[in-house]
Design brief:
The complex is a heterodimer of chains A (498) and B (156). With 498 residues, chain A is mainly α. Chain A has 22 helices and 2 strands. Chain B folds into 2 domains: 62 residues; 67 residues, no CATH class. In chain B, helix 3 packs across helix 4. Classes of the chains: A mainly alpha (498), B mainly alpha (156).
């Protein structure tokens, strides 16, 4: 394990890659701080600009954007009660109260320290589990993969917010969209509407920018939500000895909770911070302080969501199965660089795999060392009005889409998916599961048909050996559990609390 | 039996339609049998799931007990529709202009249009913002990142 980590540091630690990690972390923080653009949309817009980079540099930068935006999101949550993304909604509860009591700097530093500890632990966890997991995964046949992907999709759907039936529908629509283009076995064109531009399938960037970037531009315009730019002043950053004493246990507990939940598909980041908050409130000796600026209420959830953000990479990198839409985007980035994600990456491209893992830790360190002193600058950015920002967002989205395929057709298709995304919003469908389905569609079909070829056409092949049977049973069980009225009520309550 | 949520009924109905249409297309690709599946087999399977789920969503929007509150109608908000057109036309205009006008003019024109029609910026403000952004785009993407797209109508 240590050899591998060293290998990673030797590749991620080059000046160039350190530079990309820094640029990614800064860009991510910038976007996280700015209202109206989440991490999903940002990664989608910036993805095409990483085509020209080495695959490792591109991944390092994208990962930097990913956790940088989480950091930026918690900064605005604390200073302005404005969560930049769902994961930091919980931070608002006590972080904003701390800020109103003149302890904004301490709250921000607590969040950063907690995130760093959690990030370090999460990175070690990935390093420890990656090799054993891939050894298991390399023995997987097509039917095992089919069962695993089904379980992953069901898991993502049942644990995500909103109506479960609607999430299932979105996954299936995504799977079908993923199949559009030339069939790899027969060369037949499927779902192309006779358009030669669709022969290579729908470009991943087009779908992502259309559903997320377009959607966010539209809703900010339509709702006219010009966020209030008043922020609390920052006096001192460094927490006092008493603060440190109080944050240790919550940080450790949050790290544990987040590490476990992050691996589960879909459960991800926002749920881990919510659970951590309720755990802290329960074990605290003075629970009445929660909601009035308890430092534990910042330390726990912030550690939890960062740990989850790290361990979410485990299924993505070792099995090639993304647990969340952001992970689906990272997988998309790998495929764009002609790297087939899955258990083989770790043996065929060890420098890529371990380099990325090392860079995650480096990125976390940069966020603490560089961003903490820069808090003042980030806060100033909040006063830039949205009417000046959004034309820039539109332009970057357009150029990004064009750059990915050098075709005007992609821009028209983006507008179509953008309108589709708005329709989904009006009908209260959540577009995130669609992206998961889109990425997994071709792989799911391929493993399905290979398994059938191997079994001479017997559909029983999926249930006559223990591993796929167990995974499919788990998937069915999950669906049944989530359909139970009591469970549904619990789940709705949980997300309502956010 | 009354409708308690129009959104679910419309959304589920659209899913059933989409599933049926895709199923017709999939049949055209050849279904085959589990022993030798053809390109339409897996899509047809998915379409089946989609139609079932769509029916489930329609069902969840219908009240059979007779004591659900009256459904609120889904209204099209003209302002929201306008915003959709503004953003969509930005992307389409960009795609139409880029091959003929080059990066600078494309950015300038489409950003001014989006800026002015969104009513967030005054016409003059939109022109100035668009000009600044167009300069940034050309310098950053054409000359620094070497994006393969002409900067001006005559190339370059």
């Amino acid at each position: 394990m240590w050899d591998n980590i060293l290998l990673g540091f030797s590749h991620a630690g080059t000046i160039v890659n350190l530079g990309y990690a820094l640029v990614g972390a800064l860009l991510g923080t910038l976007i996280g701080v700015l209202p109206g653009l989440g991490p999903l949309a940002t990664i989608a817009i910036l993805l095409p600009f990483t085509y020209g980079l080495e695959p490792l540099s591109a991944l390092i930068m994208l990962a930097g954007i990913y956790y940088g935006s989480a950091y930026g999101g918690s900064t605005t949550a604390i200073l302005m009660s404005l969560p930049g993304e769902t994961a930091s909604t919980v931070t608002v509860l006590d972080g904003y109260q701390m800020a109103r009591r003149g302890r904004a700097g301490v709250a921000i530093a607590t969040a950063a320290i907690g995130s760093f500890v959690a990030g370090t632990f999460g990175t070690l966890l990935i390093a420890a589990f990656a090799t054993p997991l891939t050894t298991v995964a390399i023995g997987f046949g097509p039917k095992d993969y089919f069962a695993l992907m089904t379980l992953g999709l069901v898991g993502a759907v049942s644990l995500a917010a909103g109506s479960m039936l609607k999430s299932v529908a979105m996954v299936v629509v995504g799977l079908l969209l993923g199949l559009a283009g030339t069939d790899s076995n027969t060369g037949l064109q499927r779902f192309t509407f006779g358009l030669p531009q669709l022969w290579d399938g729908i470009d991943f960037i087009v779908l992502a920018v259309g559903l997320f970037a377009f959607g966010e531009i539209y809703s900010t315009l339509a709702e006219r939500s010009n966020p209030d730019a008043r922020t609390s002043p920052i006096n001192r950053l460094w927490p006092a000895r008493e603060d440190f004493r109080r944050m240790v246990a919550p940080i450790l507990r949050g790290t544990g909770i987040g590490s476990i939940l992050g691996v589960l598909p879909g459960a991800g980041i926002s749920m881990s911070s919510f659970i951590s908050y309720s755990v802290e409130k329960r074990v605290s000796r003075n629970p009445e302080e929660f909601g009035h600026g308890a430092i534990e209420g910042v330390a726990g959830p912030e550690s939890a969501n960062n740990a989850a953000a790290q361990t979410a990479f485990i299924p993505t990198l070792t099995l090639g199965i993304p647990g969340s839409p952001v992970m689906a985007l990272i997988l998309g980035a790998l495929m764009i660089h002609n790297i087939q994600p899955g258990p083989n990456v770790i043996s065929s491209r060890p420098e890529l795999f371990w380099g990325l893992i090392a860079s995650m830790w480096i990125g976390n360190l940069m966020l603490v060392l560089l961003n903490l002193p820069l808090v003042g600058i980030w806060v100033k950015l909040l006063s830039v009005p949205y009417r000046l920002l959004f034309p820039g967002i539109v332009m970057f989205s357009c150029i990004g889409v064009y750059a990915s395929g050098l075709a005007s057709f992609d821009l028209y298709l983006t507008a179509v998916f953008g309108a589709f995304g708005v329709l989904l919003k009006v009908l209260r469908f959540e577009p995130a599961p669609l992206v998961l389905g889109f990425v997994l569609g071709p792989m799911l079909e391929e493993n399905f048909s290979r398994a059938l070829v191997l079994s001479d056409g017997s559909l029983m092949t999926f249930i006559d050996s223990p591993l796929p049977l167990a995974m499919l049973c788990a998937a069915v069980l999950l669906v049944v559990l989530m359909m139970m009225p009591k469970q549904r009520a619990n789940r709705d309550e949980m997300f309502a609390d956010e | 039996m009354t409708i308690k949520d129009f959104r679910d009924v419309i959304g589920g109905g659209l899913l059933i339609l989409a599933g049926a249409a895709a199923a017709v297309a999939a049949t055209g690709y050849g279904i085959g049998s589990p022993g030798s599946i053809e390109p339409g087999f897996f899509p047809l399977l998915l379409c089946g799931v989609l139609v079932l789920v769509g029916a489930g969503i329609v069902w969840s929007g219908i009240d059979t007990t007779g004591n659900a509150p009256r459904a609120e109608a889904v209204r099209l908000n003209p302002w929201h529709l306008w915003c959709l057109c503004v953003v969509a036309s930005g992307f389409i205009l960009f795609g139409l202009l880029l091959p003929v006008a080059g990066l600078f003019l494309t950015c300038f024109v489409s950003i001014s249009v989006v800026g002015a029609t969104s009513r967030l910026l005054k016409p003059l403000g939109a022109l100035v913002t668009a000009f600044v952004l167009a300069v940034v785009a050309v310098v950053l993407f054409r000359y620094l990142l070497d994006l393969q797209v002409p900067a001006w109508p005559w190339g370059g």
